[in-house]
Structures are given as C-alpha cells and as structure tokens.
Write a structure and sequence with these properties.
- Helix content is about 50%, strand content about 10%.
- It has about 170 residues and is α/β, with parallel strands linked by helices.
- It folds into two domains: about 90 residues, no CATH class; about 70 residues, no CATH class.
- It has a four-stranded mixed beta sheet with strand order 1-2-4-3, covered by helices on one side.
- Helix 4 packs across helix 5.
- The protein binds zinc ion (ZN).
- Zinc ion binds next to helix 4 and helix 7.
C-alpha cells in the first residue's frame, strides 16, 4: 500500500499513489492557502476521474494541537475531507486509520459523515456521560480502530462497512 504524504515543510518528501505531475502542483501548497488548496484538490479529484484513493497527509502539523484543545481526546492525527494532519511523523497504522476515515467520509459525500459522526458522538455522550468513551464507541472510530493494523483492509473493505459497528455498540459497556 502506498501513501500520499506532504510534510509541513518546504522540502516535501513523499511516497505517492498519485501522478507526479499532479503532486508537483500540490507540493507548494500549505493548509494556510485555504481556498486555493481546496480548488487544487478538486482539480486533482477531477483529473483522477473522480477517484482520489488517498487523502493528502500533512506531518508535523499544528492542526491536531488546536483540535486537542476543543475535543475530549488528545489528538495525534485527524482526518477532514481530503486532508489528514498529524502532529509528528505518521506510522503506517496511523496512515491506515486516517485513510479509513477518509473513505468513510468519501462514501457519505463528506457532509453526511460529518453529521453522522457528530450524531454518534452526541448519542455516546448521553449514553456514557464521558467524552473519551463516546469517542471510542463511535461506529466510525470502531471500524477504524478495529482494522487500522491490517494494511490491506482498505483493499478488502466493503462500502459502508462502518454500519456493522453500529450493532456492536451495545456489547462493549
Ligand atoms: Zn479515528
């Protein structure tokens, strides 16, 4: 399995599953470029025939640090839409975990995954009265944690596999 990696530095070292000409265009971009980057990613998706297999991963990013301040967990890496940010260097397991989240979002047209993720978190909060527990019991997280050590998981995964982790929610109390 290959990963797309963008380091949060000028000299971006990477391995990639995407076309190198596309990456050359992306290499100069930084999350701070905001809209420009968004348009660029959409261009990549378009060129790729609507299929972007992997998210764009930033290492040594401040984004997880900021997120940790507003969420119940200490965030090491996080996935949002076409991007993944990590505080440091990502292990294959982390890359796999975050790519599972990317695929979950993609199959739900992004916005529906965000809504559902938020809803599951809310239900978990009401049920367990604890942010940390609500996080780990979220079906999207359950799927990711259950399979992130299997680097072949995304090749075997069936669409909407997270649905199977809805049922298991009651077992682990
Ligand atoms: Zn996760």
């Amino acid at each position: 399995m290959q990963w797309v990696i963008l380091r949060n530095t000028e000299s971006a070292a990477r391995t990639t599953a995407l076309d190198t000409s596309v990456l050359r265009k992306m290499i100069r971009l930084h999350p701070a470029t905001g809209l420009v980057e968004l348009l660029n990613i959409l261009a990549v998706v378009y060129q790729d025939g609507g299929k972007m297999k992997f998210p764009i991963m930033y290492e040594n990013s401040r984004v997880p640090v900021w997120l940790s301040k507003i969420t119940p967990i200490n965030v090491w890496a996080n996935s949002f839409a076409f991007w993944v940010w990590c505080r440091g260097e990502m292990s294959d397991r982390t890359k796999n975990h975050e790519t599972i989240h990317y695929v979950q979002q993609r199959e739900l047209l992004m916005v529906f995954q965000w809504i559902l993720y938020g809803l599951f978190h809310l239900i978990g909060l009401i049920k367990y009265r604890e942010g940390n527990k609500a996080y780990y019991e979220n079906p999207f997280e359950r799927e990711a944690y259950a399979n992130d050590q299997n680097l072949n998981y995304l090749n075997e995964r069936k669409p909407y596999a997270w649905i199977h982790y809805l049922r298991k929610q009651d077992e682990a109390v």
